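Hi X.,

You mentioned you wanted examples for the new student's onboarding notes, showing what a folding record looks like when two proteins sit in one file. Here is a clean example. The first protein comes first, with its sequence line followed by its C-alpha cells.
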Amino acid sequence: MRITAFVVQAFLLVSLAAGCAMTPATSTTAAPAPSGTSMTTPDGSRSSSQSGGGTRQASSVGSTTRPRLEGFRVADSLSDIHFDFDKYELTADSMKTLDTHAEWLKANPKHLVLIEGHCDERGTDAYNVALGERRAKATQNYLAAHGVRTARITIISYGEERPMCSEHSEECWAKNRRAHFMVKAQ
C-alpha cells in the first residue's frame, strides 16, 4: 500500500514538472497593453488592439491595482543585465550590477522601477514571454533580497518582441537576452 502511494506521488510530481516546462507563466495582475499591441490574457489567448503586435505580460507585486506603464523612462544609472542562452539565473556579473542598482534604488526611494524581461528570437513566442517573465522576476527577487521594496517594482515580459539587435548571430542574440530598467518618480 505504501509503495503504491509513493509511486502515485512520484508520477504526479514528474507529470507536473514535465507539463509546466513550456507553459507561459501568468500573473494575477496584468497591466493594460498600450494601444496598438496585443496582450496575453490569463487563459493564454491573445487579445489584440488596433495594429497588432507581440505578447506582453506585466505584474506588480504588493499592489492590487494594475500598474500604469506610462511615465517610465530610462535611468542612466541602471544599466541592463544579461543572461545566458535559455537561462534566467543571474550571473556573477549581473549580481554585481544589481548590487549597484539596489544601492541607487535605496538612495532614490521615491522612484518606481519597471523591469523588462527580454529574450532572443529563438524559441516560440509563448516560451520567450515566459522566459522573459522569469528573467524579470529573478531580477526583482534579487533587488528585494537587497532591500528594495517589492511594492516599488513592476515586471513585464516582452519576450522577443523588442530586440536590441536584429542580426542573426550569437553576439547579437546575447545583447537581446536581458533585463532592462525603467524608472518614474512617484
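Then the second protein repeats the pattern, sequence line and then C-alpha cells:
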Amino acid sequence: MTDDAVGSETARTLPPWWAVLLVALAIAGTAFAIGRFSTFDIAPVTPGDTSAEAGFARDMQVHHAQAIDMAMTIYRSTDDGDLRTLAYDIATGQSEQKGVMYGWLVQWGLPQAGAPTMQWMSASEAGHAHGGSSSAPLSEEEARVAMGMASDAELAELGAATGRAADCLFLELMIRHHEGAIPMADAILELGSEPQVLAVAERMKNAQQFEIDAMTSMQQRLGCAG
C-alpha cells in the first residue's frame, strides 16, 4: 500500500473534528455533573437544637467533666505509676474531647444546655435499654445513674481516701463511668448523621472500652475487692 493510500485510509477512519469535540464536551459535562451532585450529597446539614448530635454533645460534656475531675483527684494522690499515667491520659484526652464538643455547639449556633439529660437517646435501642422513652423521660437522678455518674457522696469519699483504698475506689467509679458512656456512643452512632460527630463517637467508644480493660487489669493487680 502506498503512502497516499495509507493517508487516505487514516483520514477515513478518524472521526470528524466536530465529533471529537462533542465527545470531549460530553465527558466534561458528565464530570461536572457528578462533582456537582456529589457535592450536594455530602453537604453537611447543621444539627438542630433537638437533634441527637446536640444532645450527645451536651450530655457527654457533662459526663467528661466528672471523669476529668475524678482522674485529676487520683492523679494527685496515687503512688501507683501505671494508674497515675492512666489518670493523666483520661484527664487530657477527655478535656480535648470536651473542648471539641463545646466547639460543635458554638459552630452550630446552639446553646450549651438544652433538653433534659439523655432525652435525645429515647429513640435508640441504647435509650430503651436504659428505660428511656419519649412518654416517660428519665429524671435527672435516673439519667445520672444510667450514665454511670458518681454521686456527690462518692466523689467526697474519693477525695478523702488514700493509698490502695483510693486507687481501688477510683477504678471502681471510673469503670462504671466508662460503662455508662458506651451506650451513649452507641446511641449517637445509631441516631446521628453528622460525619464528624460519628467519627469522634466511634473513637471515644473504642478508647473507653480499652481503658475499661486496662482498669480491670489494674484492679486484679492491686487486689481490689469486687
